Amino acid sequence: MAITIDDQYIDSLAPNAAAAKNGRGLLQKKKLVALYRTADDTLIFGECAGSGKSNYQCSVDFIQQDKPVSRCTCPSRQFPCKHALAIMYAYAAGETFNEAPIPEDIASKREKLEKREEKKEEREQSASTPAESARKKTASKNALKKKIQAQLDGLDLLEKLTLSLVRSGLGTADKQVIKNINDHVKQMGNYYLSGAQNELRRLSLLLADKSDPEQRYTAEVEQLSRIQALVQKGRTHLQARLEDSELALDTDSPIEEWLGHTWQLAELEQYGLKQEAAELVQLAFVSYEDAGRQEFVDLGYWMEPDKDTIWRTFNYRPYRAVKHLREEDSYTGSVKVNEWYRYPGDLNPRIRWEGEIPSSLHADLLARVRQQAKGSYADAIKTVKNQLKNPLADAHPAMLLHVKSTYKGNNGELYITDEQDQQLLLGNVQDHSFPIPGTTELLPYIAQDGLHDAVWLGVFQHHVDTGQLLFQPLSMIGEQEIIRLLY
To answer: Is-contact 369 302, C-beta < 8 A?
Structure first.
């Protein structure tokens, strides 16, 4: 969609005559030092010299042709400001705009704008006539089809990149290869594939890391396999959606989030994923930095006292906004919620609620939680391995296990056993995408009643190179308290 604007149209957007005059003046004085446009000609942006040392970053977004959105880093409260007007005057005058990928911050703002527009459209549809509703629904479906097709195009581009990496070999990756991957990271934003952005960025970070080449190479191969799985499974899913008359979302797996979809609470309710009142107990909590997502993550593990599902809550704090976002607190008691929402997922689905009533943690509540612990490691391992067959599943599923005993092996390694004396190796998770602190070294400081005939919450990791499956304890659920190894 090409942008079609002229001076008269730009004048109509200006907040006043002075702003229009000043915008033209910036163009005439050649204050625009860089001009760019996206490949689909829906965004123009660039840099404009100002009174300070740094140039102003300004843009005008025409993703909605009739509602252009201007943005600028200048302190002006006018929209569009003179810098954004100058960008538009330059475009109308036929100045050269070099093609460039959409900046990540604008891609994120577009997604938020899209969500607001979808909500607005839903409200309008509910109040309109049946004929109008049908027309608007058709328009919405057409827009969604275009988005899905764009995602398919993005997956094609991603596949070409992964195939070239396989042909050349990861061991030969140099600075130019890493730069090419980072360029593709930016391009994925144009195709609404934020999940692919995260995974490509993880691969880039691994290739740039020069520590422990053998371990790093294994991680690189796993990461490349994950990206290839995203291409294959994502393409199959998107093609199936296009063939579906309702273009329905998948609520049985996390594929939508892998492809970049941000679930809204209204959507979860629409798909029957809203839950009624419940009491939830937080069993463990950890905060860590996810460089792939470029966010800090606050992760909580929760249970309903009489159900065996381990739920997860996530609070994401992007790098660029971390100063303005509060880190999530851990909960030492239980919380009562009137309604809550479950996200599509595997063994440990994400949940979310708004508003809770805190309650104390008492022995009866802990006893009901302890009753949900898995007594057979063979069954637990089978369940975990079935999940890990899917490269896009959570690589570190959490489980509540009953521990009959803990002992040290001949080489100093630690094991736990179940009632059938089947053993499970203990160890610390080592994963660039899930960099939580180690805990197994804390076990010698735990009292004996926490190490034998006990209930532990922990996460699994499968080591591809050795074939070993290990378990990292996160907390011990006792009869009177929860001993947390992570905070």
So the answer is: no
Identify each DSSP E strand in 49-104 by its residue range: 56-61, 69-72, 98-99
State yes or no: pLDDT of 131 exceeds 60: no
What residues make up the domain containing 46? Answer: 7-100
Helix ranges restricted to H, 353-480: 363-370, 377-388
What is the tens place of the pLDDT at every residue in 238-253?
999 999 988 999 999 9
User: 432 near 215, Cβ under 8 Å?
Assistant: no
Kindly state whether residues 50 and 139 are assigned to the same domain: no
**Position 320 in a domain:** yes
Work out the angle at residue 85's Cα, subtended by the Cα atoms of residues 80 and 87, and round it to the nearest 5 degrees: 125
Contact between residue 461 and residue 452 where contact means Cβ atoms under 8 Å apart: no
- Is the distance from CB of 37 to CB of 51 less than 8 angstroms? no
* pTM: predicted TM-score of the whole model, two decimal places: 0.72
* Spacing of C-alpha 259 from chain mean position: 10
Q: Which two tokens stand for residue 372?
A: 């949900």
CA-CA distance, 344 to 401, in Å (whole number)?
A: 24
- 460 within domain boundaries: yes
**R_g of the chain computed on alpha carbons:** 26
Q: Are residues 392 and 334 in the same domain?
A: no
Q: What type of residue sits at position 278?
A: A
Q: What is the spatial distance between Cα 242 and Cα 156, in angstroms, rounded to a whole number?
A: 16
